[in-house]
Fold:
Amino acid sequence: MNKNEIKVTEFVKNASPELYSASIAETGLTNIGKITWNNALESSYEFVTEENREYFLDYFLSFGAWEKEEIDSIDELNALFIQELSATIREHEGYSEEELEKYMEEGIISSCLYHPFQTVDREYYFYIGG
Structure:
C-alpha cells in the first residue's frame, strides 16, 4: 500500500454514506448540501492527517473546483474526502463483482474505490491519485 491508497474498510462497512452524500431529488430538502457537508465535518472518521494532507490537497485541487485556501485545513479535506468516498460507495451499490470490474474498466463508474475482491488483503481502499 502506498500513501495514495487510503484504507476505508471500516467506513464502507459501518458508515451510512447517504448521511454524507445525497441530493435534493432523493430527500426533497433544498438544504441537503449543507446538511451532508455538516455531517461530513462532524464525522468521527478521520482519514486526513498532517502526514498525508498534501496527497488529499493535490487530489482535490486536481478537480479544479477550489482554490488551495478554500480547502487547506485537515477538517475541510477530511469532509471533502468523506463526501467523495460516500458518493463512490453509493455509485457502486447493487453491482456484482463482475459488473464492478467491467464498469470501472470501461470508465462508466469510478475506479478509485478498490473492493476486497480486488486487493490482496481483502480490504477496501480508495486511491487518491498521484
Notes: The beta strands are 5-7, 113-114, 125-127. The helical segments are 9-14, 24-27, 32-41, 53-61, 74-92, 97-105. The first strand starts at residue 5 and ends at 7. The chain has a mean pLDDT of 94.
